[in-house]
């Protein structure tokens, strides 16, 4: 079995665990964990001694390791017989993972090889969480999230790095004005200005704010070291500076990078080619690394959320910037070339400054924003300056790969449903390697940007297929977007076991991995039932229709669960809508305030798309979820006398119920767009009546759905949703969600019988409290 019993661990007969006197933190952690598992004593030693010797290489402790093996990158070596032997790894996280494999991950066949020695190379020697949602990003206030347990899970699952630049504060300090949403976009992928200052920016942010954030970064880096994970940062850069800065230094003003619809203040970055700017960024990264000298990488996200590069085509206000890069009347091609070359200089400047502290430091650029500049950027890259993307084929924000069940929806790259990789990606990889550049491919392992705000959504076979596809084209660097989420409250989630098996024991078939994982949770008696339920859950995920923005990262920021669904949203007085609008990604003149199919100037859901998605939920997704729920309810009843097994089925049942509530609200959004638009477009009374009846039926369904969600939350038996322990924000519901749902129900009942109406002139409204002057 993969889940080793105490008897199996006792059979190893380990009495002493030795680790070096001059140890790295992970050596001590791994030794103490092995001692805990086996009942042995962990002790420091100047040299190998009787018992199991545990260490990182290069060490004189690897006595039996075949010499030809040590030349590869990313491996572990386990040799134990009669209580003596070695556990060696070349990477800190793999040393801890090796110990955990003894407890949870070796088949009988592999365990039999321990006496002769077991050499396990990592499938992906470089594997990191990327934009780690709960540890550092906008779910960092999630309740019941244990940071240390999470970091240990990363190491055990086969990750090699950890992201550390999360704010200590619930929300960032950013200059703002009345009725502006924009500062909330600075709460994630926080840049240098929120941790350190330089001679250029001294005094712009309060020192107590910087110190708290920097201390949080240092504590996360220390946790990473404890489990052998190399720390790194994921930042939106170049990030804006406040207008008061540019009033003092006007010649340093670079590009305007804010979204002009979501912001009320124009926001600018530094002119990136100015010598003072270059010195500032060198000082910023070095000041950050003085606090954590082993920071090993920086992932640069940009051209969004208050960051951007000058004169690039994807800036929200179009190409613009300071006076030092582009003279007037240049062609788009020449501008793209200059902008791309400037970005490469910016990245190399950061890399060279960081390398003075950590010579192995790497910097990666998220490449999607750069459709026209991409080739010029790549030409300036090298071994330590590289790029990353959800597909090696990306060029701009239009992502490749179609939805497997609804092929008219494209852009599936990097998500849970993209499980194959086109052969063209192998060609791009080969071309990149000719230049000495190793790109990183992003993939999904949790619910970030796909099933937000759900926890523990299982799609283990889909994930395994994607991991194998990445392995088969020869990728060595991969990153899991969003990390693993709140694993603390998802103890029976199969993904960590699948990640671990793919990383260290990929020869074990997925059927066996899942069966043994299930057996460890519920025993052999119910293992087949659990794996069948996981498969059924995964099938329902495959058939869930996409609803643009809502079914991705926008579910919470559109307040999809707590907003009332009525024919005329603005029939509800503004004061009564405020309970949800104040936390949404709304602006007073955003069409999304009164029209579910719109957001700023985007058409999210058309009438036809709404009809198709509604039908997809009704015919395919919801029937599958209902069947799964019925099966799990029977298993819960069947295991009433076996509480350990029953707890697992209760957990999965509640997650299926939460997914059903999630799907049903997405169906309501789709039906609203289908029938409100249909009613408004219809010219015949019979057609209007048909749409009105269907809309009322959708309201009935959503009311029942909200009551089901309320019951699920108030039962308190399973944490199925990310809830902030501190309060609501745009990206995370607070613990008062049940109260918000009750208000939603009240308003839906009160205003459901109004006729459909959308005020399309919402765009031109003044901010609250102001009014336009009268014109003759």
Describe this structure in words.
This protein is of the alpha/beta class and 776 residues long. Helices cover 41% and strands 11% of the residues. The strands form 5 sheets. The chain has an 8-stranded parallel β-sheet with strand order 7-16-15-14-13-12-9-8. It has a 6-stranded mixed β-sheet with strand order 2-1-3-5-4-6. It has a two-stranded antiparallel sheet with strand order 10-11. A hairpin with a 2-residue loop joins strand 17 (598-599) and strand 18 (602-603). The mean pLDDT is 96.
Topology:
Elements: H1 6-10, E1 16-20, H2 25-38, E2 41-45, E3 52-56, E4 75-81, E5 84-89, H3 92-103, H4 108-112, E6 118-121, E7 126-130, H5 147-157, E8 161-163, H6 207-226, E9 230-236, H7 243-248, E10 253-256, E11 268-270, H8 275-291, E12 297-301, H9 332-355, E13 362-366, H10 374-379, E14 385-389, H11 423-434, E15 440-444, H12 460-472, E16 477-481, H13 495-504, H14 510-522, H15 524-542, H16 554-557, H17 574-581, E17 598-599, E18 602-603, H18 607-638, H19 643-681, H20 685-715, E19 723-724, E20 733-734, H21 737-751
Parallel strand pairs: 1-2, 1-3, 3-5, 7-16, 8-9, 9-12, 12-13, 13-14, 14-15, 15-16, 19-20
Antiparallel strand pairs: 4-5, 4-6, 10-11, 17-18
Helix pairs in contact: 2-3, 5-13, 8-9, 12-13, 14-15, 15-18, 15-19, 18-19, 19-20, 20-21
């Amino acid at each position: 079995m993969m889940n080793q019993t105490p008897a199996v661990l006792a059979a190893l007969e380990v009495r002493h665990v030795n680790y070096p006197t001059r140890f790295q933190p992970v050596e001590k952690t791994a030794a103490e964990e092995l001692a805990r598992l086996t009942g042995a004593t962990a002790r420091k030693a100047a040299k190998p001694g009787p018992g199991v010797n545990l260490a990182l290489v290069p060490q004189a402790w690897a006595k039996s390791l075949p010499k030809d093996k040590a030349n590869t990158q990313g491996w572990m070596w386990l040799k134990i017989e009669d209580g003596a032997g070695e556990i060696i790894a070349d990477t800190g996280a793999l040393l801890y993972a090796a110990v955990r494999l003894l407890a949870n991950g070796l088949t009988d066949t592999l365990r039999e090889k321990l006496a002769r020695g077991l050499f396990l190379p990592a499938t992906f020697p470089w594997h990191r969480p990327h934009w780690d949602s709960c540890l550092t990003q906008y779910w960092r206030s999630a309740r019941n999230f244990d940071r240390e347990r999470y970091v240990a899970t990363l190491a055990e699952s086969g990750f090699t790095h950890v992201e550390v630049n999360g704010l200590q504060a619930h929300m960032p300090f950013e200059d703002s004005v009345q009725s502006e949403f924009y500062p909330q976009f600075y709460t994630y992928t926080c840049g240098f200005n929120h941790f350190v200052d330089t001679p250029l920016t001294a005094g712009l942010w309060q020192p107590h704010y910087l110190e708290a954030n920097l201390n949080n970064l240092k504590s996360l880096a220390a946790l990473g070291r404890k489990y052998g994970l190399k720390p790194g940062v994921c930042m939106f850069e170049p990030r804006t500076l406040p207008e008061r800065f540019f009033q003092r230094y006007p010649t340093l003003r670079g590009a305007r990078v804010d979204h002009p619809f979501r912001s009320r203040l124009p926001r600018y970055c530094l002119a990136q080619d100015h010598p003072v700017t270059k010195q500032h960024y060198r000082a910023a990264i070095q000041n950050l690394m003085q606090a954590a000298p082993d920071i090993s990488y920086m992932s640069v996200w940009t051209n969004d959320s208050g960051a951007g590069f000058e004169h690039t085509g994807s800036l929200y206000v179009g190409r613009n910037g300071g006076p030092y890069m582009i003279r007037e009347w240049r062609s788009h091609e020449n501008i793209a070339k200059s902008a791309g070359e400037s970005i490469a200089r910016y990245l190399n400047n950061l890399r060279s400054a960081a390398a003075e502290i950590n010579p192995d430091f790497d910097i990666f650029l998220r490449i999607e924003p750069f459709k026209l500049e991409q080739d010029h950027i790549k030409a300036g890259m090298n071994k330590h300056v590289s790029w990353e993307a959800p597909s090696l084929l990306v060029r701009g924000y239009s992502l490749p790969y179609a939805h497997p069940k609804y092929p008219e929806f494209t852009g599936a790259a990097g998500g849970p449903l993209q499980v194959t990789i086109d052969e063209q990606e192998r060609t791009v990889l080969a071309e990149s390697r000719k230049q000495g550049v190793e790109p990183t491919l992003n993939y999904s392992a949790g619910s970030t940007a796909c099933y937000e705000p759900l926890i523990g959504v299982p799609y283990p076979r889909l994930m395994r297929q994607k991991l194998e596809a990445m392995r088969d084209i020869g990728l060595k660097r991969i990153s899991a977007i969003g990390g693993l989420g709140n694993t603390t409250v998802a103890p029976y989630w199969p993904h960590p076991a699948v990640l671990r098996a793919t990383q260290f024991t990929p020869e074990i078939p997925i059927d066996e991995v899942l069966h043994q994982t299930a057996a460890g949770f519920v025993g052999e008696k119910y293992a087949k039932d659990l794996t069948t339920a996981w498969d059924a859950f995964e099938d329902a995920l495959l058939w869930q229709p996409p609803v643009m923005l809502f079914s991705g990262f926008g579910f919470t920021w559109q307040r999809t669960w707590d907003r009332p669904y009525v024919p005329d949203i603005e029939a509800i007085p503004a004061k009564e809508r405020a309970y949800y609008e104040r936390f949404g990604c709304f602006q007073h003149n955003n069409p999304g305030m009164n029209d579910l199919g719109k957001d700023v100037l985007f058409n999210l859901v058309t009438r036809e798309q709404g009809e198709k998605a509604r039908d997809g939920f009704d015919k395919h997704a919801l029937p599958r979820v209902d069947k799964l729920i019925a099966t799990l309810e029977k298993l819960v009843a069947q295991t009433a006398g076996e509480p350990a097994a029953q707890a697992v089925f209760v957990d999965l049942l509640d997650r299926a119920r939460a997914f059903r509530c999630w799907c049903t609200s997405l169906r309501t959004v789709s039906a609203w767009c289908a029938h409100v638009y249909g009613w408004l477009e219809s010219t015949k009374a019979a057609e209007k009546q048909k749409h009105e009846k269907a809309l009322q039926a959708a309201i009935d369904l959503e009311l029942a759905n909200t009551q089901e969600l309320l019951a699920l939350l108030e039962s308190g038996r399973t944490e199925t949703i990310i809830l902030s322990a501190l309060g609501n924000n745009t990206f995370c519901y607070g613990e008062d969600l049940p109260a918000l749902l009750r208000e939603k129900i009240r308003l839906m009942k009160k205003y459901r019988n109004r006729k459909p109406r959308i005020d399309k002139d919402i765009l031109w409204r003044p901010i609250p409290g102001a009014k336009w002057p009268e014109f003759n």
